[in-house]
Write a structure and sequence with these properties.
Length: about 210
């Protein structure tokens, strides 16, 4: 299932919402089909500049976002290059200022603790001005509350909120979650999704058809 490659605005009359995949140029950011970003303050096309912070190529870490995610205005993704090495006796990032301290520029990544890729699953809703910290994995179907600060992994279909974000509740019972994770409706063809929209929106797995 692929959406039209050049489609930027899901709604022709609304330029506050973009299909995020089609406005990204950074090779270290991967976004799935139909994921949207809304911004009523800045141009949503500037997502990778305004919302993905400290994401410098030298560290080679990635932001990976799945399909059918909904990302609200002001959400931020903070990356490892904004981190400071915790094992150091000082929080000052000496390796970044290698010229001043006559350090080896090849060791610039010693300035921080590398947390790895940030991975957002499919069908994830990230609320207004939420902050996702470096190296976090958010499972399929999760919901991140408004202005939450996510410092740890979030399990699939879990609602979290607060600073730091903590689990509030599961969206469904464990049996339903297991079935949804097995079903992976976001990987269906567009035609099959269209046939099952009523069933998906009703929340009734028994109405799903082939």
């Amino acid at each position: 299932m692929k959406m039209p490659q050049k489609t930027i605005y899901p709604r022709s009359f609304d330029h506050q919402i973009v299909y995020l995949k089609n406005v990204i140029t950074d090779p270290n950011i991967e976004v799935g089909d139909y994921t949207i970003y809304n911004d009523f303050v800045d141009d949503p096309c500037d997502f990778q500049k305004n919302n993905v912070l400290y994401h410098y190529p030298v560290n080679k870490d990635k932001l990976i976002i799945g399909k059918f995610c909904s990302i609200a205005c002001g959400s931020k993704f903070l990356f490892t290059c904004g981190n400071h090495a915790q094992q150091s006796l000082s929080s000052y990032t000496f390796p970044i200022f290698f010229e001043e301290w006559e350090e080896d520029p090849k060791k610039i990544t010693d300035a921080w603790d590398n947390k790895g890729n940030t991975v957002i699953g499919n069908d994830v809703w990230i609320g207004y001005e939420a902050v996702i910290m470096q190296g976090v994995t958010i499972g399929d179907g999760a919901i991140i509350g408004t202005r939450a600060v996510v410092t740890k992994d979030v399990a699939p279909y879990t609602i979290v909120g607060g600073v730091p974000a903590k689990s509030i509740r599961k969206r469904f019972d464990e049996e339903t979650i297991a079935e949804l994770l097995k079903m992976k409706w976001w990987d269906w063809s567009k035609d099959r999704i269209k046939r099952n929209l009523t069933a998906i929106q009703s929340g009734d797995l028994s109405k799903i058809s082939e």
